[in-house]
Specification:
By secondary structure, the chain is an alpha+beta fold. The chain has four domains: 25-146, Thiol:disulfide interchange protein DsbD, N-terminal domain (Immunoglobulin-like, Sandwich); 204-390, no CATH class; 393-508, no CATH class; 527-674, Glutaredoxin. Helices cover 43% and strands 16% of the residues. The chain has helices spanning 2-17, 202-219, 227-238, 242-271, 275-279, 283-300, 310-320, 324-338, 340-355, 361-382, 395-423, 430-448, 465-481, 517-520, 540-550, 564-573, 577-585, 618-630, 659-676, and strands at residues 25-33, 38-47, 52-54, 67-70, 77-85, 89-93, 98-104, 106-115, 122-132, 136-146, 161-163, 527-529, 535-537, 554-559, 588-593, 606-607, 614-615, 637-641. Strands 3, 4, 6, 7, 9, 10 and 11 form a seven-stranded antiparallel beta sheet that branches. A five-stranded mixed beta sheet has the order 12-13-15-14-18, with helices on both faces. A four-stranded antiparallel beta sheet has the order 1-2-8-5, with no helix packed on it. Strand 9 and strand 10 (136-146) form a beta hairpin. It is globular. The two termini are 42 Å apart. It is a multi-pass membrane protein. Residues 33-144 form the Thiol:disulfide interchange protein DsbD N-terminal domain.
Length: 677
Amino acid sequence: MKKLLFILIAFLAFANGNAQILDPAKWTTKIEKKSESNYILTFNVVIENDWHLYSQFTPDGGPLPLEIIFKNQKGNFTLVGKAKESKTRTAYNDIFEVNETFFEKKGQIQQEIAITNPKLTEIKVDFNYQVCKEVCINIEKSFTFTIPAASKTTEIATIATDLTTIDSAKVDTAVTNTDVNKEQVVTPEKVPVLDTKPSKQRGLWSIFFIAFLSGFAALLTPCVFPMIPMTVSFFTKQSKTKAKGIRNAIIYGIAIIFIYVVLGFLVTWIFGADALNALSTNVWFNIIFFVLLVTFAASFLGAFEIMLPNSWANKVDNQADRGGIIGILFMALALAIVSFSCTGPIVGTLLVEAASKGGIAPIVGMFGFSLALALPFMLFAMFPGWLNSLPKSGGWLNTVKVVLGFLELALAFKFLSNADLVLQLHFLEREVFLAIWIAIFGTLAFYLFGKITLPHDSPMSHISVGRLSFGLVVLAFTIYLIPGIWGAPLKLISGFPPPMTYSENPYGVGNSKGGSNASAQILPEGAHLGPHDLIAFEDYEKGLAYAKSVNKPILLDFTGYACVNCRKMEDYVWSDPAILKILQEEVVLISLYVDDKRELPKSEQYVSKETGKEIVSVGNKWSDFQITRYKANAQPYYIVIDIEENMLSSKPESYNSDINAYKSWLREGIDRFVKVK
C-alpha cells in the first residue's frame, strides 16, 4: 500500500512539473485530388477557448504571423496562388500599435499545388506560428502528406502526420501529441467559412456608439437640421388625426433606418464580410482613403459641395407624392439624397472604418448612424410642443460642419501614416505627424475663438459660451499634444500617431540616448540596454558568468520580440519604481528571445534530445532550453535562479499585472539568495 501511495504521489508530482507544456492548437489535415496534377492541401485547427492563433496576413510589427514552409517544393511541385484562410478576426493591438489578424476557436487553411515531378510520393510542410492568451507560445509543426496512388480515380483524403515538438511521454496527459482524425472529403474549389465569432463583442458596441455620435453630428448640419421642423409639420398638418401623424412620422424614422442599414448590408454583401478587413493594411487602400478624407474635409470647410445629381432627387421627390407607406419611404430616401453633401462624407468614413473591422460591423455602424438621425423626427412628431425649444437655424450649423471638416482632415493623416509605416519610408514619422495634428487642432481652436472665418460663415459680433467652451477644450488638447514631440507617450491618443520607435529620435526631440546616465556607463561584455535602460543579457552563458562575478541572483526572462504580454509586463509592471529599482540593483537580467530568427553557426546546430526537433536558430536554442530545463514553452516566463543555476523562487511566474504580487514573488527569490549566500 505504501509503495502504491509513493508511486501515485510521484506520478502526480511528475505530471504537475510538466503541466506547463502548452499546445492549445490541435491540427487535422487531408489531401484531395483536384485534377491529374493538382491537389488541395487542407489544414484544420481547433483552438482552445480564449487563445488566438495569428494569421499569415497579420501585419509586420506585431505578433508573429503564421509562416508556411514547403520543404521539398523545389523540382517537385509549384504553389497555385496564396494559401487561403477561413474567417479571421482583426483587432487593434495598443502595445504594438498595429491591427493584428488571428483565428479564434477554429480555422482552416487551404493550399493548392501542381505536381511537376510524377515520381513524387509525399509533400512535407512546416508551420511556424504563434498562439497567445495571457502568455504567448511559438510553435513549429511538421506535416507529411502522402500523394494518393495514381491508379485511384476517386478523390482520396489522407491524413498527414503531425510531428509535434513535444515528446508525448513527457507531456501532461491533457495535451495531445498527435492531432490525427479522419475527415470527409469536401469540395476543393471553395474554402468553407467557419463560424469564428469573437467571444467579446466590444468591437461592435464601440462601432455602434461612434456611429450613433456621428449620426447626431450629421443631424446638426445645415443639410439636415432645418428638415426637422419642416418634416414634422408636414406629418402633423397632412394627417387627419394626431395619432396618424405620429404613426407616419414613426414609419418615416423606420424608413431612414432601413435605407442606411440596407446600405451597410450591401457593402458587406458586395465586398464580403472581411474583404475591406484585409485591405485595411494595404498601402494603396490607405493612400486612396487619405485622398478621399482630404476631399471630404475640403467640402466641409466650404471649398465645394459634394452632391448627388439633382435628377435623382427630383425622381424620388415625385414618388414621395404617392402617399401611403411607399410615399413615406421615398420621402426618407429624398432626405438621404438631399442631405448627401453633409452626410455623405460621414457615412463614407463610417462605412470604410466599420468594414475594416470585418463581419457585420458595416450593418451595425449604419444602424447606429441612422438611429441617431431618425429619432428626432419620431420624437418631435410625438411631442410637437418640443419644436418650440429647438434652436433656430443659423451660422452655428455651419460651425458644426466646419468642425467635422477639421476632424476629417486629422483622421486622414492616420491613413497616410499607415501607408508610410508599411512602406517604411519615414516621411511621416511621429514628430511630423504630431506637428500636423498640432497645426490642425490649433487652427480649429483659432476658428472657434472667431479669429479665422471660412467661406460659408455668417458675420458675428461675439461668440457663444458653448463655442468658447468647446474652443477651450480643443486648445487644451492641442497643448497636450505638444510634449509628444519631445517624447511624451500621449496615452490619450495611443494608436493614432506612429509608435515612438518610428521617429527621428525614439527618446524625443532634443533628448539623445547617449546623454542618459544608464547608457553613459560601461556595459559588461555581452550586455545591452533593455527596457527602461536596464542592463540585460541575451546570452545565457554570458549573463551567468557576469552574475557569478558580481554575486547576484539571476532573473531569467523567457520572452519574445512579438510577445504582446511580454511588452505589457515591461511597460506596466517593470516600469513601477519599486520593481524597476529591484531590477536595476538586485538581480542580473537575462532575457532569452525564443523567436530570435538568427541562424546558429553550423557547429552549434543540433537535434534536441527532448523534442527531436532540429535546433537551427538562436530562438530554437532558447525555446529548447526552456522546454528541456523547465518543462515549459510559454512566454512571458520568469524564474529567479542563483549562480549555481538552482531555482530560488518557489514557482515560476508568468503574466501578472498585479505589481504587488510580482514584487513579492521577486523578493521571495532574492531573499533566499541572500540567506544562502
